[in-house]
Specification:
The chain is mainly β and 682 residues long. It contains 2 helices and 56 strands. Belongs to the aldose epimerase family.
């Protein structure tokens, strides 16, 4: 057993201060520190391995009074973990990293995950600079250039650690002496990095340095952030704002040219919040990525907003404040990592973004850039604060707290076209299985129709007949009372329809349906467009719109004055005004449904009696108010395809999603299909 020692130290107050008591528990394997005023604020220390030179390396766990957790190692001053809550209060780790010290040793020779980099972060052209008339040659590790401190920068050394707690949070102070000549730099440089996890849910980094000879200094932290969680995949769906009107253009070797240009009308303009994916699509080249320095607005040396990152699904928001004049945006493109990330995750592609607050790159060789030179008697100071909070959604207006999506059936091939029958069962299409199934609570799944014409969408007409969009038969059909099928429409102006997809019936009995090409091969197309149609009860077919790329889900507002149509390819919902004669006018975009990096597109769509619009999309069911404001996203474990209201009160939303069927209880009932038809038995 380890020997446990309890130490009590009294911190004697200065005038006007109150004495604080710090409790320290120490054993041979673990150290924990708690502040007596903040019993939930703590630091624990564990052994974590040894550096290449045999020095012991520790892992420090900082916990603030609100339960946020940061893990930091004194090897490279690396932030290995930072757990912050989402809008539901669930903690998740928002920095990419690795489970072991050995993994960091392997990967961080070129990727710098979570580390403090220096003595000078970013690039120095040709590994040379002249200071006070003397030329210095540095270690080069990026072709001909010096990058992030050289071959063995601050990211690969062991720092002296001092854990501290206080009423404001948990703090870890790290100190390193970079000796004269290290990596070619002049002067003995004493560096301190103080990490504080505050009780206000801020992660604060304070860096200082002093020297005995003039030397350039430019420190930063190189954490890769993903606010959806380190294992969630891509950051392309994150919304980013950068408080900078200007940037420093690079040459082909990523060395700044010395110019400072406006970001306006360039891919580098994030002065208004923008999806990272929308910016990357403006960049050139294969696997394009940001690796560019911004000249931040505000005065150097004064704390100012540098960036704001917003992640829609978790609701997490991170604001970055800094005293430095610049910030490097690096999205990278991770590939061929030989080491798995935390929990066995394979980081690939745009898995994280770096926001590296700094002086401008190669400042030591650019006289018009802010100077990085530190002289004896001066103190280098750099503060960067990451502030975390969440944006709450408005799903409480439609969903009781803690209500969850429930999987109720599985092992399908691809589910679509759900439809609740008033006699107490659900119909759903399995397109590849060429089958319509009948699902009923506590009953064995039954085949309702096989073959089904690769049925997709289903609805009822006013008489209670089943109306089906048949993919492979390229028609809209009706199931008669005797169970036989009648083709309602299969051609437009003598040419076969593409592949009717989804449909809705208006109170006058007319059927509105979409006709994308999903169910046919390219050579089978006869029409030169993908339309939205209206079929009246007397059999008249009218083309209402043909400017869609992939029209899909379709639904009326409760009063039938508006028609919503999803365009799966474009990624938005369009809305039309409906004339008294049933024709459409005033087409416009109702809402965008884009989240790069998450599977799913606008597909099925339904409306509740209050006019809220429910559309399947990336990550789940997106719920919009009648005005088009996003209320929130009901997350679904599989990619959802379509929706149906059901149960006796029509307050259960049934969701078809890939191989499964889900449901969730909601507050508002949905609009019933064929809402005036009388119940009947099949």
């Amino acid at each position: 057993m380890g020997i446990s020692i309890i130490l009590m130290s009294i911190l004697y107050p200065c005038q006007g201060e109150i004495a604080k008591v710090k409790l320290v528990s120490l054993d041979t394997h673990n150290i924990s520190i708690k502040d007596s005023d903040q019993q939930n604020t703590s630091i624990t220390v564990t052994e974590w391995g040894k550096a290449e030179n045999g020095q012991s390396v520790n892992l420090f766990t900082l916990t603030n009074a609100k339960g946020l957790v940061a893990k930091i190692t004194n090897y490279g001053a690396i932030i290995t973990e930072l757990r912050v809550p989402d809008r539901r209060g669930k903690l998740d780790d928002v920095v990419l990293g690795f489970d072991t010290l050995e993994a960091y040793k392997q990967v961080n020779r070129y990727s710098y995950f979570g580390a403090i980099v220096g003595r000078v972060a970013n690039r120095i052209a040709n590994g040379k600079f002249t200071l006070d008339g003397k030329e210095y040659t540095l270690a080069t590790n990026a072709g001909l250039h010096h990058l992030h401190g050289g071959k063995k920068g601050f990211d690969q050394v062991v720092w002296q650690a001092e854990p501290i707690t206080s009423p404001t949070g948990a703090t870890l102070k790290l100190t390193y002496l970079s000796v004269d000549g290290e990596e070619g730099y002049p002067g003995n440089l004493t560096v301190t990095v103080t990490y504080t996890l505050t009780n206000n849910n801020e992660f604060k980094m304070e860096m200082t340095a002093t020297t005995d000879k003039p030397t350039p200094v430019n420190l930063t932290n190189h954490s890769y952030w993903n606010l959806a969680g380190h294992a969630s995949g891509s950051i392309l769906g994150h919304q980013l704002l950068i408080n900078a009107d200007k940037y420093t253009p690079n040459n082909a070797q990523k060395i700044p040219t010395g110019e400072i240009k406006l970001v306006q009308n360039t891919p580098y303009d994030f002065t208004q919040p923008k999806l990272i994916n929308d910016g990357i699509k403006q960049l050139e080249g294969d696997k394009p990525s940001y690796d560019i320095n911004y000249a931040l607005n505000g005065k150097p040396g004064q704390i100012k907003l540098a960036a704001k990152v917003d992640e829609r699904f978790s609701g997490r928001v991170m604001e970055v404040y800094t005293t430095k004049p610049g910030m490097q945006l690096y999205t990278g493109y991770l590939q061929n990592l030989k080491t798995q990330g935390k929990g066995g995750v394979n980081y690939q592609g745009y898995a994280g973004l770096c926001l590296e607050t700094q002086y401008f790159p190669n400042s030591v060789n650019q006289p018009n850039f802010p100077s990085t030179i530190l002289r004896p008697g001066q103190i280098y100071r750099h503060t960067t604060t990451h502030k975390f909070y969440t944006k709450q959604d408005n799903l409480q207006s439609i969903l009781d707290k803690n209500t969850q999506v429930e999987k109720i059936a599985r092992n399908f091939k691809f589910t679509e076209g759900p439809l609740w029958h008033p006699n107490g069962f659900l119909l759903l299409s399995d397109i590849p299985a060429n089958t319509i199934y009948q699902w009923q609570p506590n009953q064995k799944l039954q085949i309702f129709r096989h073959p089904s014409g690769n049925a997709n969408g289903n609805t009822f007409d006013l008489q209670g007949h089943l109306i089906t969009a048949e993919h492979s038969n390229r028609r809209v059909s009706r199931t008669e009372k005797n169970g036989k099928l009648a083709a309602l429409v299969s051609h437009y102006q003598g040419k076969r329809l593409n592949s009717p997809n989804d449909l809705v019936v208006k109170s006058d009995g007319s059927i509105y349906f979409t006709d994308p090409p999903y169910g046919i091969k390219p050579q089978q197309k006869e029409l030169g467009f993908y339309g939205v149609y209206r079929l009246t009860s007397d059999g008249k077919l009218t083309l209402l719109a043909k400017d869609f790329v992939r029209p899909n889900g379709i639904a009326f507002s409760p009063d039938e004055t508006k028609l919503y149509v999803n365009d799966s390819e474009i990624g938005h919902i369009r809305v039309f005004d409906v004339n008294s004669d049933g024709l459409l006018k005033n087409s416009r975009i109702f809402a965008q449904q884009k989240y790069p990096g998450k599977e799913g597109v606008p597909d099925g769509i339904k409306v509740d009696i209050k006019g809220n619009v429910y559309s399947t999309g990336p990550g789940g069911v997106w719920v919009f108010s009648a005005a088009g404001n996003l209320l929130g996203i009901i997350e679904v474990p599989e990619v959802p395809a379509n929706l149906a209201w059901g149960d006796n009160d029509y307050k259960t939303l049934y969701i078809t999603a890939r191989n499964s069927l889900y449901r969730i209880r909601l507050k508002n009932p949905g609009v019933r299909p064929g809402k005036s038809f009388a119940l009947r038995s099949w």
